[in-house]
Specification:
elongated; transferase; single chain; 8 helices; histidine kinase
């Protein structure tokens, strides 16, 4: 901005100097032409011609003053406008930095609170004697961890409105590594790269968490091969979701878990559940 102003000022003064030089040069030449005329011309024309010359000079000077005044006022207005824009830009930059700091601080506190909730639930699990109560707390802990993961993804990325679904769900999967190894369950995810908004990601994350918990808890018989698969891909702005387990306990039964039904409603997705070869949930979701 400073370089532009200096350049403009130099160009302005060069033009002004050239205009002034040209006008006075023209006037001097004009005067010399008349003064160099033969004396007989002046004697024949008894009235002096200097009046006409003076009028021409005055007109040129007035025109020059008008031009200079116009350029000066234009230049001053330009300086004022640029200075005003510079002040506004600085204010906007300060506001943006303040907002970024506040958002960062809020995210940091929310993340700390979610970690504290997880610690409290984990502590409660250790104190519970009943296996049923432990399972209830573990389900709750898994859901809190799912929300905490989503928040961490939003907090750590520049884009605060969309989530890499593949990366997010793969991290949710790691939360079940310990229990899947303990119960000898194979969990396989095949997820295409999809960027979706944070609200949709949260509901899908909670849905996947609830489905895995239900499969681990209710689907499998003790001595069977235990497999869980999740396939997600997108075609022409349609998200295709398919979750299946091969649990023998579910075969041929009517199963409609309430929370899973509610999460599908939140996703505005018409889902289908089959139990011919285990539990399987399928739906399509419009991304736009």
């Amino acid at each position: 901005m400073k370089v532009f102003l200096k350049t403009f000022l130099i160009i302005f003064y060069v033009i002004l100097f050239l205009n002034t030089t040209y006008v006075f040069s023209s006037n001097n030449k004009f005067l010399e032409t008349f003064h160099s005329k033969d004396d007989s011309f002046f004697q024949e024309n008894k009235q002096p011609i200097s009046k006409q010359t003076i009028n021409e000079i005055k007109k040129s000077q007035i025109l020059l003053v008008i031009i200079i005044t116009f350029f000066v006022f234009g230049f001053l207005f330009l300086i004022y406008h640029l200075k005003k824009v510079s002040i506004i830009n600085k204010q906007l930059k300060n506001y943006a930095q303040e907002n970024e700091f506040l958002i960062s601080e809020t995210n940091h506190r929310v993340n700390n609170n979610l970690q504290l909730i997880s610690l409290l639930i984990s502590d409660a699990v250790k104190k519970k004697q009943s296996e049923e109560h432990k399972n209830d707390f573990l389900k709750l802990l898994s859901k809190v961890d799912t929300i905490a993961l989503l928040h961490r993804h939003l907090y750590q990325t520049k884009n605060k409105t969309s989530i890499n679904l593949k990366k997010y769900l793969e991290e949710i999967k790691t939360n079940f590594d310990e229990i899947s190894e303990e119960k000898k369950i194979t969990i396989d995810f095949e997820i295409s790269f999809v960027e979706i908004n944070s609200d949709t990601a949260m509901y899908i994350g909670l849905l996947v968490t609830e489905l895995i918990i239900n499969s681990v808890k209710h689907a499998f018989e003790e001595n069977q091969e235990k497999n869980i698969s999740l396939t997600i891909d997108s075609k022409e702005d349609i998200l295709n979701f398919k979750y299946c387990d091969n649990g023998k306990k579910a075969i041929g039964k009517f199963i409609e878990p309430k929370l899973i039904h509610q999460l599908c409603l939140q996703l505005d997705a018409v889902h289908q559940i089959t139990t011919t070869q285990g539990f399987c949930l399928i739906f399509e979701k419009k991304l736009i």
